[in-house]
Amino acid sequence: MRVLVTGVAAATLAACGGGGADSDGFSSGSRLRAMYLEGDSARLFTGFYDVALEVPCTFEVLPGQDDAYCLPAAPEAFHFVDPDCTQPVYDIPRETSGEDPPQYVRVTADACDASPRMWRIGPPVQVEWRYARWGDGGCYADALGTTGAVAIAELPIERFAHATVEVARGDTRLRERVLVGGDGARQRVGYVDAELEVDCTVQDRYGTGMPACLPRMCGDSSDVWDATCMRRYALPSVAERDCRCAPSRFAEFYDDFETGGAAIVRMVAPVAADTPIASRAPLANGGWACYASSYAHEGLFETVDVSFAPAQPQVEGSGRIRAIEYVVGDDATPSGFFDAELDTRCTPAHAGDGTVRCIPHARSSISVRYLDDGCMQPVQLVPAWGPRGRTVAATGEAPWEIDYPSSSSVSPAPRLYEVGELPSAQLYWGWPGACFPYVFDPAVEPWRVVGPELPPERFALLTTITEWP
Length: 469
Description:
Shape: globular
């Protein structure tokens, strides 16, 4: 079976000495059957179908371990129906995307060595009281009753398909990391950067068109520098379970005073307690000032710049929907779809007609700014970085944050509009019952006019396919 096949990818995996996934990054097993979205001749892997449990699933690698389980889509259960917090309840949202409700919920334990606990849920019922666990470990009444689906049976983690992480042999900088299932299924989950000694995944994180193999980031800094304000210090993050259980030596910084871009650095050594610390402050005429700071030294790390293995983006295919691949050396990693008719990258999403279509990638919400003094013609703010000049935008009216997860990596349905160039520098701010002038700098806020709503048929249709023997 092939998805986004290239000859160089096949040759590379054959040279890895065995243990790799198919040339597309995945292959089916006897229990797990590969699933993908197809548009024209382009295909994109989305996960597996578990024949034993009769449900789509995606592998989840346990933090700090080489074990993974293929788990079905399951929202996190934060509430329980009993005062001991032992029986989870899924709070059913008032609005849904039209998909079927989930069959499972999960409870993720705080302990690093604990696997996710998965529960099958029953039909909706009226819950009189609901309870929640607090930070002290106690179980307390959290709210009055609601309509929810009560978890009726916990499934041991061993019920789900298991896989282990294997690293391909070789002497190249990037070495493939593959999940190998007990049934023979395989999935590429990234690489090991032998030079930096870190796991990484190929991605274009900042939309610059220059993808690279990047590690997980478990550190950041709001505004902590050395005495000259030329070297930034980092503070490791332990708030997220993944970072607490499997710390990363890399941190991500955003530079708001200069380029507005971002950078990833490596944390190398704790900052000595007697090291002078400074902060930056923006100046009215541009640039920044450096001044001494009383920020606590505890937990701070010195950082060094680091270069990541670059990748080359390429588009493969001849139909309207084409495959985007990131090429590293002789290896190609499928990344997404490209709509040749709209001349833009696109993402699978549920359209208003109930189908799955490829929606332009760089969509964003329409704000409350308008072109006319009656606040009837809305405008859109182009993202601060990343691709500009896209043709559509999604309204804030759509159920964008939805509680029902998708089992095929497909987003809920947005409403989409065509956008065009702004004819003047005068805008208005709309508020309930009011519409007044809005002053802005076009160089800082690149607004665009939002035109008529686009019908679902404007976007390419995608088909979900499961690979069967």
